[in-house]
Amino acid sequence: MQFSQEDFEKAKEQVNLLQDEPSDDIKLKLYALYKQATVGSCNIPKPSMLDFVNKAKWDAWNSLGSMTQDNARQSYIELVSSLVPAEPSPVNEIPPGSKYETLEVTTKDNITKIMLNRPKRKNAISVKMYNEIMKALEEAANDDSTITVLTGNGDYYCSGNDLSNFTQISPGGMEESAKNSAELLKKFVQHFIDFPKPLIAVVNGPAVGISVTLLGLFDIVYATDQATFHTPFSNLGQSPEGCSSYTFPKIMGLTKATEMLLFNKKLTAAEACSQGLVAEVFPDSTFQKEVWARLKAYANLPKKTLAVSKQLIRNMEKEKLYEVNSQECECLMERWLSEECMQAVMSFMQKKSKL
Amino acid sequence: MQFSQEDFEKAKEQVNLLQDEPSDDIKLKLYALYKQATVGSCNIPKPSMLDFVNKAKWDAWNSLGSMTQDNARQSYIELVSSLVPAEPSPVNEIPPGSKYETLEVTTKDNITKIMLNRPKRKNAISVKMYNEIMKALEEAANDDSTITVLTGNGDYYCSGNDLSNFTQISPGGMEESAKNSAELLKKFVQHFIDFPKPLIAVVNGPAVGISVTLLGLFDIVYATDQATFHTPFSNLGQSPEGCSSYTFPKIMGLTKATEMLLFNKKLTAAEACSQGLVAEVFPDSTFQKEVWARLKAYANLPKKTLAVSKQLIRNMEKEKLYEVNSQECECLMERWLSEECMQAVMSFMQKKSKL
Amino acid sequence: MQFSQEDFEKAKEQVNLLQDEPSDDIKLKLYALYKQATVGSCNIPKPSMLDFVNKAKWDAWNSLGSMTQDNARQSYIELVSSLVPAEPSPVNEIPPGSKYETLEVTTKDNITKIMLNRPKRKNAISVKMYNEIMKALEEAANDDSTITVLTGNGDYYCSGNDLSNFTQISPGGMEESAKNSAELLKKFVQHFIDFPKPLIAVVNGPAVGISVTLLGLFDIVYATDQATFHTPFSNLGQSPEGCSSYTFPKIMGLTKATEMLLFNKKLTAAEACSQGLVAEVFPDSTFQKEVWARLKAYANLPKKTLAVSKQLIRNMEKEKLYEVNSQECECLMERWLSEECMQAVMSFMQKKSKL
Fold first, then answer.
1. Contact call for A305 and B335, based on CB within 8 A
2. Above pLDDT 90, what percent of chain A?
3. Using a CB-CB distance cutoff of 8 angstroms, which residues of chain C are in contact with residue B218?
4. Do A262 and C310 touch (CB under 8 A)?
5. Are C336 and C178 in contact (CB under 8 A)?
6. Which position among A2, B151, B333, B341 has the lowest Cβ density within 10 Å, counted as fewest Cβ atoms?
7. In chain A, which residues have their Cβ closer than 8 Å to the Cβ of C229?
8. Position A355 confidence tier, pLDDT thresholds 50, 70, 90
9. Is domain A103-354 classified as CATH 3.40.50.720?
10. What is the per-residue pLDDT for C283?
11. Of A117 and B175, more confident
């Protein structure tokens, strides 16, 4: 089947309208094919090792070698059409009129439920989602609910920071990008430190990265037996955040915390429970039913008493948590600008793009 | 069988001589029958919701409806006679000449043993017992013993704060009462923070409320497998004390501590042990024998060395514990004066008085 | 068999050439027999209780009663000859040219391995070994390795402080000795607090005393199922060190920490793991293989990232750890000069010398 230039232009437009953001490897593939189709074989100098985003793009383009522009155009069109969903995405995923794009937020039975809602991206946290979670927490703090619950839609609880956040370099360059990211992260974590009501995580599947480290700031964590807990920071040349450098050693002792935070050990739900990160593990088949029955009972307890008791416990270490959050973000900012981190992220992305 | 007015007067006197203080529901019943017998049907206006003691009394009286004065007198006499023990209570419970009414304190084998001794009230801590425990700790701190043990007489270790303490409103009104209670509590907890020798809890049965939260301040906790650990504060509109808002998250991690302190989770002895609140659990049948053999061995170790080592560990967080104790008592005082707490306590007492 | 005076002189010389330092009880026996052989029955006044080294020597000599000088000489020669090894000790224990006498230090695969190397003394830490460990840590901190490992040669990980350190009273008397020991200890522990890279303990067998308490300062602890963890301080009238009075309650909760640090409870490897002191326990048969495979993988992670993450976690409590170390050493210094401690050490040594 032969495609026209018109098909190509149409495909180009469809990319911008995709409901689900493609993964990083797909994006690199799209970039490479588009360049090959419009420019021909890669004809620009190889970027420096430190300029890791452009290096990754260059690698993708260059890997197409001498593919003809026609073949590239055709591959591009085919790839795009495979990304466009055959059916419109089910409307029940996001309630009509919802003010959130990446979350579904509902309040019922004295419980405000914040559900991460990018199931096709395994609920990876994009910049948009960071901002929406903060907004949802601010609203939950002030609404009439007694407790607030964070959970994920689909198989994953959350796959962590969306690595595509890394590819959005601000005009001020790498340093400004790193600074902005660190500030966003700091503000984000602070929302969890300051949250004034009982905050409960319902971990419905695998949790990765910052969605794990933040658990130390939740008042209760319940998990399905299908959940896992993984913080592969060192692999990516990065240091821990979410106050985990303080909360994890406090919860599970230094030696088990170090295995996770420095050496990428992935915990099963049972291990996370015996190490004190999770309060209780439920069989996946009855998880939602059992947990929500329990949460409804909790939400009937005297509301102010619960808030006051939570704050009594939290206030004792609030100053410490602020300090930890600052130090962690500063440390991460330095990491992001380090060659070790750049090479680690680049090698990770290249591994993924070798489909 | 018909009772005379003389029988009624005699019953009235017997009430004041009862060796064991009746429970709150019995007291309300006695009050109601006495009023019905002497005044007739309830004829006073319903007290305000906030005046919760008088409201409870009014409810009890009012619940008797149009019962005749004769029937009320008869019921009163029968109730009192059921409370008077057939036999004099065994003298071995409190050694003759003991200076404590609510405790039995003995020193033997380098061990001072403080036994809560109100078994018929499940060793609930009355105001008198609060004061006697403080006195006993002061004496144990200065005697020749090497270690000090706290335990309970009978099936319970301790059922927590005696709720009848709530009904003793001081002349200065609710606020003064709350302030006095908070000051008593603060002084009481401070005795545990400051205790200079190894302090060991021998938990011989269920433990409730403050008898649980204080365990975080003991150097060792041993428990029978019949023990349970329950802190139903939120049910009663109250916040945690005994430094548990600091010690419990430190011992078992925030998520498991919150389940107990905010959401009333009752732990088995095995759970308390795996969460680090209890050092070891023993089968009930051999509990006393095994534990006391071990304690006798402990008490033969060099006395000053043990005291110095305990203080080395404790002094590192003493200032923190003082601060926590203050904040908890202030928080509780506010709770006691809150409508949420009053309603919760009242509803609890009414449930109990519906025999 | 009869021995000549020449044999006796030769035996005397051999004692000074022994490759392995004899145990304390053997040394006391040698002293006693030598005195009995050269002077006759004990003829000096009994030293005071406080002068515990001389008291121990006097006891040993005096216990020989009226043994003849000839018999004493013969026993002395026999004892010495039993201490001289038949074969020269295997040279592979200490690599030729090693600058360490008590350690074997190697760097390979990005790992610096510091192995305690006095297997015949169960890797007890002599004053020399204290100094060599500090030197080895300083070098490991600055070399190219990614992680540093401490382990023991032979069946033991480490049997703790070499009690013969106690018998080296400095010319300034007991007080100066105690002060010097406390200063050495403080400097030693500080090397662990300050160590800048991931520090991992590979506990290959029983661990005693300071080798246990220091584990709270390691980033990861792996153990064979043959390991045990024992801190019998109170038995010897001593208080805990190595920052364990802070790290142990933090890791395992106060009640389980007190059982170890005050009441000499010895933990199995499985118990140490469930209490959070050990990250994972391995079957002894595969211990070395499994652990080193894992460590090699760890050592391939980005080096700076690991160091930065470790320091992020450690720096949060560094000031606290310095303070704890100071207080512990001061406390121990007082203990060492206390009668309780002197009597406890003496009674321990006498028990050992009653062969």
1. yes
2. 61
3. 254-255
4. yes
5. yes
6. A2
7. none
8. very low
9. no
10. 98
11. A117
Q: Nearest-CA distance from C48 to chain B in Å?
A: 20
| Paired strand residues for B152 | B116
Helix ranges (H only) for chain B are 5-17, 24-38, 52-62, 69-83, 127-142, 174-194, 210-213, 244-252, 254-261, 269-274, 287-298, 303-315, 318-336, 339-353
| 8 Å CB contact of A313 and B257 | yes
Q: What is the ipTM of this complex?
A: 0.75
DSSP track, C204-238 = -S-EETHHHHGGGGSSEEEEETT-EEE--TGGGT-
| Bridge-based pairing state of the strands C267-268 and C228-230 | antiparallel
pTM of the model: 0.78
Which chain A residues are Cβ-neighbours of C305 within 8 angstroms? 233-234, 237-239, 335, 338, 340-341, 344
* Strand A111-116 with A147-152, pairing: parallel
Which fold would CATH assign to domain A5-83?
Answer: Acyl-CoA Binding Protein (1.20.80)
Which range among A33-37, A322-326, B162-166 has the greatest average pLDDT?
A322-326
Which residue type is seen at B161? N
For residue B304, give the chain C residue with the closest CA.
Answer: C340
Q: Which residues on C lie below 8 Å from A261 (Cβ)?
A: 309, 313
Phi, psi (degrees; rounded to nearest 5) at C172: -75, 0
Taking 50 as the pLDDT cut, the residues of chain B under it are 87-94, 355
pLDDT at residue B15, as a whole number = 80
- Look-up of token digits 């100071």: C326
Dump pLDDT digits (tens) for C58-82.
888 888 888 888 888 888 888 887 7
Asked whether the beta carbons of residue C276 and residue A259 sit closer than 8 angstroms, the reply is no
B302: chain C residues, CB-CB within 8 Å: 234, 237, 340-341, 344
Residue in A255, A261, A340 closest to C304 by CB:
A340
| Residue-level pLDDT at B233 | 92
Contact A312 B328 (CB under 8 A): yes
Name the residue ranges covered by the structural domains of chain B.
5-83, 103-354
Vertex A96: Cα angle to A90 and A97 (nearest 5): 150
Closest chain C residue to A233, measured at CA = C305
Q: Which residues of B touch C324 (CB under 8 A)?
A: 316
- pLDDT(A281) > 80: yes
Q: Is A312 within 8 Å of B334 when comparing Cβ atoms?
A: no
Distance from CA of A219 to the nearest CA of B (A): 5
| Separation between Cα atoms, residue A115 and residue C185, nearest integer Å | 54
Give the chain A residue whose CA is nearest to the CA of B232: A301
- B220 near C263, Cβ under 8 Å? yes
Q: How far is residue B19's CA from residue B120's CA, in Å, rounded to a whole number?
A: 10
Closest C-alpha among B215, A240, A33, A247 to residue C309: A240
Supply the pLDDT for residue B7.
83
Running along chain C, 355 residues long, what does each successive block of 10 average in pLDDT? 77 76 75 87 74 73 86 84 60 58 96 97 95 97 97 97 72 83 96 98 98 98 98 93 97 96 97 96 97 97 96 95 97 91 77 58
- Find the residue in B nearest to A218 (Cα): B255
pLDDT of res. C46:
78
Nearest to C264 by CA among A183, A158, B306, A246: B306
A267 φ, ψ to 5°? -95, 145
- pLDDT for residue C149: 98
Q: Do A259 and C279 touch (CB under 8 A)?
A: yes
For residue C264, give the chain B residue with the closest CA: B298
Please indicate whether, in this complex, the C-beta atoms of A305 and B233 are within 8 angstroms of each other.
yes
